[in-house]
Amino acid sequence: MERAHLFWLLCLLSAPLSAESVSSFASVDAAGFAPFGGLDSDHNGYVSRVEARIATGLHDVFDAADANNDGLLDRNEYSSARSAVKVRQ
Question: pLDDT, tens digit, for every residue of 37-59?
Fold first, then answer.
C-alpha cells in the first residue's frame, strides 16, 4: 500500500467520533445500514470503503453500488445499495 494511502487510512481510523456520529450508529436498520451522515465520518459527502466497514450490509454490495468506480459512494449510490440489500432479504 502506498504511504499516502496508509497515512489517510490511519487518519480516518484515529479520527474521534462526534456525539452525532455515535448516536446515528445506534439506528442501524435490519440490513446493517446506518444513516448516510453517520457513516460519512469526515463529512466530505461520500462514504469510503473504510467508512463502509461499519455497515455490515454495505460491505457486500459496495463494489456493485459504486457506479462510477471511484472507490466512494455518494448519497445516490448509497441509497441504491440499501435498496439492493433490502430486495435480497
Answer: 888 999 999 999 998 887 767 87
What domain range is 56 assigned to? 3-88
| CATH classification at residue 79 | 1.10.238
Give the total number of structural domains in the chain: 1
pTM: predicted TM-score of the whole model, two decimal places: 0.65
Three-class SS of the chain: CCHHHHHHHHHHHHCCCCHHHHHHHCCCCCCCCCCHHHHCCCCCCCEEHHHHCCCHHHHHHHHHHCCCCCCEECHHHHHHHHHHHHHHC
Question: How far is it, in rounded angstroms, from Cα 72 to Cα 70?
Answer: 5
The pLDDT-based confidence of 76 (bands split at 50, 70, 90) is: very high
